[in-house]
Please model this.
Amino acid sequence: MDNILEVKNLYKLYGANKSAALKLSKQGMTKDEIYRKTKVTMALNNINLDVKKGEILVIIGLSGSGKSTLLRMFNKLNVPSSGKIIFQDKDIARLNKNGLRDFRKNNIAMVFQNFGLMDHKNVLKNISYGLEIKGLNSKLAEEKSLAMMKMVGLDGLENESINSLSGGMKQRVGIARGLATDPEILLMDEPFSALDPLVRRDMQFELISLQENLETTIIFITHDIDEAFKLGDRVAILKDGELIQLDTPANISKNPANEYVEDFIGNADKSKVITVRDIMIRPNSVVRLKDSPIHALNIMKENAVSSAYVLGPKLKFQGVITLDDALKASRLNLSIEEVLIKDVALADLDSTVHEIMDMSVESPYPIAVIDKSKELKGIVSKVHILTSIK
Ligand SMILES: Nc1ncnc2c1ncn2[C@@H]1O[C@H](COP(=O)(O)OP(=O)(O)O)[C@@H](O)[C@H]1O
Ligand SMILES: [Mg+2]
Model:
């Protein structure tokens, strides 16, 4: 995937004596110690990361870890102390007034935690405002805004006043306004943290489906690990202004960079992150539909298992044969096909452990993992599921 943004050696220091602070940081002193000694806050400390085109990148960390400082550099609400943020070969931090105006108008938009709406304008006007600034005539701007409202579930509320809306509805307005200008990049600073949990879950779901349709790159801040893992294609973990780990939720779960990350993600529901692909194993007992039941019997005996997975032409998965049925078939001279159990629980490679958990409990055999062409890729037993989420 192409990178849409590249952050290089980015620092943000608040305070006068920056060079002393930097020196202490290079000697390994912590953010707190440096502040005590120099009264300089190392808000961002040598951040390097890429943002991939079309991804949802979630930035997570405790309060004060530098999330907002970093996000606000992407649209130059904050200016780096040093380092670069490259967008289309240009350093955002060095955009002049006109360059910055064009960039904000055409390429990037932001949704705020406290919604940042204009109370004196109605819903429609709040959304169309950015389009009118962009130079669209008000009729076109309204049409576009109405379409956006429909997408985010605000149908029919165009004339409502902002103050009459619930928190969830206000944030829908914020999102519609952000998306109305078709930005390539949408910045979201804890947009859902003021919402109650049920509304929040709806909004998360809708953001994911919106983003799938629009292909906007989203940089999303949260301090909620479940939200981060649910929304993020990749998740960046910040601590004391430093980037500790940047990876997919599944990889972070499997290989936390250090103890801090391990503790941090400790409360996350791993079953929603780990996929079948991560935990499946190769079935050791596989037979062909045209094999003899005796052959199936021998394979199961060799591997000390009581069922075998049966494949047809092009390795397509057909079903399961049990030890008992193989015995019976060889005694009665039946084919594998005649005793085949076709009603077997199936999962695809990208199903999460959470999604297959109930199915696994009910299934008498390990779940068969198949790809789009029904080729058998692996199997998942109850034991694999249990050990994966420990
Ligand atoms: N304008 C500022 N002046 C001085 N220090 C600041 C300023 N803004 C942020 N900080 C400090 O920078 C650090 C990072 O803050 P921030 O990016 O807001 O964290 P987060 O969004 O992760 O809660 C904190 O230690 C904060 O106190
Ligand atoms: Mg913040």
